[in-house]
UniProtKB/TrEMBL annotation:
Entry superkingdom: Bacteria
Gene field: tyrS
Family recorded in the similarity comment: Belongs to the class-I aminoacyl-tRNA synthetase family. TyrS type 1 subfamily.
Protein name as catalogued: Tyrosine--tRNA ligase
GO molecular function, one term: tyrosine-tRNA ligase activity
Residues the entry annotates as binding ATP: K231
Classification via PANTHER family: TYROSINE--TRNA LIGASE, MITOCHONDRIAL, TYROSYL-TRNA SYNTHETASE
Residue window of motif 'HIGH' region: 39-48
Organism from which the protein derives: Levilactobacillus angrenensis
Keyword Plastid tagged: no
Length: 419
């Protein structure tokens, strides 16, 4: 199966500029191709990951992927998908974001020389204003630019000349990579179609109508309920473990709807057709086992964070389900209880009843605290506590940083111990 046929099977192709030409090209040679990302933030989220999964598939098939970090284009802003002008970042912030994104890409694509990261600031910053207007601006028809969906969608609210020129700059990227690196294919989201075709038009004007340059876009990924993929109730799911912990990342995929899980397995894993079909059969016959969701969470978490992160996430998940939290590390506590109710207390030892009422406010009154304790409804760090006259030492577990209180069967509280 060719890489193009595989992408079709995975439902990962929205549009191609020349389907037969691109199909022939990828069968003839190792093709140079690229996808870009502007450093508007210091981490990708899983929505950004989609085109780079396609790039990774080309890499594994023996092709030559390039990643363009938009140090120049990111400093002015892409109008795509925005209802208003972006707030321009300082160049120091742009540079910081470039460094962070580069590290993420190196983790995803490896450092074996089979791919290359470039920054369009390297060539776009060298073009003077007059050269830009004479050598490139002259080749772009304003009427055609206005008809591009990415620009047309902004005309009612207005668009600055800065963002209007974005498609010219991105077109220069494609031309530069075509000339300097023999890159013949650009990949992007569905909203990048106008920018990609503008780049191909520029290549044809500069290199001749028979120049082999192609574009491929990925469909907008929607969930079964019609909402856009990539966010949870708490917002974006980031690749940066400081923004979204590996446990939270794993849980996002575990909670995938049955109606979406096979589609996501095709998009975000490198499992073959036979294995994905087996998982599809499992969803149809035994959905309660959630085998497909578990495999999805394992595969994507390992790809983004590594095997150790998968084991850690599974350890936290098992502990929270069983209530046996005593074996968790302080780091795992930080991840697993990040969004649970929390309170900070001092490190002083105190009577358990007073501590539950006065220090943590977990119990509303001493009477209620005594009742819950004697009824066995309170667990401290996984252990059932029934005595009302004992003293609690907040520093006795988890490196002296946390106390985990469970009231009833499911209600957890994270008590942080002040330094």
């Amino acid at each position: 199966m060719s890489i193009i046929d595989e992408l079709k099977w995975r439902g990962a192709i929205n549009q191609q500029t020349d389907e037969s030409g691109l199909g022939d090209l990828v069968n003839e040679k190792a093709v140079g191709l690229y996808a870009g990302i502007d450093p508007t933030g210091d981490s990708m989220h899983i929505g950004h990951l989609i085109p780079f999964m396609i790039l990774k598939r080309f890499q594994l098939a023996g092709h030559r992927p390039y990643i363009v970090i938009g140090g120049a284009t990111g400093s002015i802003g892409d109008p795509s998908g925005k209802k208003a002008e972006r707030v321009l970042q300082t160049m120091d912030q742009v540079h910081h974001n470039e460094v962070c994104l580069t590290k993420q890409m190196e983790h995803l694509f490896g450092q074996d020389g089979s791919f290359k990261i470039v920054n369009n600031y390297q060539w776009l910053s060298k073009i003077s204003l007059l050269d830009f207007l004479r050598d490139y601006g002259k080749l772009f028809n304003v009427n055609n630019m206005l008809n591009k969906e990415v620009v047309a969608s902004r005309l009612e609210v207005g668009i600055s000349y800065t963002e209007f020129t974005y498609q010219i700059l991105q077109s220069i990227d494609f031309l530069h990579l075509y000339q300097a690196e023999d890159v013949q294919l650009q990949i992007g989201g569905a909203d990048q179609w106008g920018n990609i075709t503008a780049g191909i038009d520029l290549i044809h004007k500069q290199e001749g109508a028979d120049a082999k340059a192609y574009g491929l876009t990925i469909p907008l990924l929607l969930k079964a309920d019609g909402t856009k993929f990539g966010k949870s109730e708490g917002g974006n799911i980031w690749l940066d473990p400081e923004k979204t912990s590996p446990y939270e990342f794993y849980q996002f995929w575990i909670n995938t709807d049955d109606r979406d899980v096979i589609k996501f397995l095709k998009y975000f894993t490198f499992l073959d057709q036979d294995e994905i079909q087996e998982l599809a059969d499992a969803v149809a016959t035994h959905p309660e086992k959630r085998l497909a969701q578990t495999r999805l969470a394992e595969e994507v978490t390992e790809f983004v964070h590594g095997k150790e992160a998968v084991a850690e996430a599974q350890h936290i998940t098992k502990a929270l389900f069983s209530g046996d939290v005593a074996d968790l590390t302080a780091s795992e506590i930080e991840q697993g209880f990040k969004k649970m109710p929390s309170v900070t207390v001092n490190a002083d030892k105190k009577n358990i009843v007073e501590w539950l009422v006065d220090d943590t406010k977990i119990e509303s009154s001493r009477r209620q605290a005594r009742e819950d304790l004697t009824n066995g409804a309170i667990r401290i760090n996984g252990e059932k506590v029934t005595a009302t006259d004992i003293e609690i030492d907040p520093t006795s577990a988890f490196d002296g940083k946390f106390v985990i209180v469970r009231r009833g069967k499911k209600r957890y509280f994270l008590v942080r111990v002040a330094d």
